[in-house]
Amino acid sequence: MSETGIGAAVRRKEDQRFLTGRGNYVDDMNRPGQSYAAFVRSPHAHAEINSVNTSAAEAADGVIAVLTGADVAADGIGGLPCGWGITSKDGNPMAEPGWPILAAAKVRFVGDMVAVVIADTIDQARDAAALVAVDYNVLAAVVATDGSDAGNASVHEEAAGNVCFDWEFGEKEATDAAIDGAAHVVTLDLINQRLVPHAMEPRSAVAEYESATDQLTLYCTSQGAHVQRLLLGAFVLQHPEHRFRVVTPDVGGGFGSKIYPYAEYAVLCWSAKRLGQAIKWTADRTEAFVTDAHGRDHVTKAELALDGDGKFTGLRVTTHSNFGAYLSAFAPLIPTFLYATLFAGQYTTPAIYANVISRFTNTTPVDAFRGAGRPEATYMLERIIDQAARETGRDPAELRRINMIPADAFPYQTPVALLYDSGEYEAALDKALDMADYAGFESRRDEAKSRGMVRGIGIATPIEATGAAPSAIAGQLGARSGLYESASIRFNTTGNVSLIIGSQSSGQGHETAFAQLISDKLGVDFDNIDVVEGDTARSQMGLGTFASRSLSVGGSAVDKAMDKIIDKGRKIAAHLLEASVDDIEFADGDFTVSGTDRTINIGAVAFAAYVPHNYPLEELEPGLEEQAFFDPANFNFPFGAYVCEVEIDPDTGETEIVKFSAIDDVGNIVNPMLVEGQVHGGVAQGIGQALLEGAVYDADGQLISGSLMDYTMARADDVPDFDTDTTVTPCPMNPLGVKGVGESGAIGAPAAVINAVVNALSPLGVQTIEMPATSQSVWQAIQQAQA
Question: 3-class SS at 507?
Answer without folding.
Answer: coil
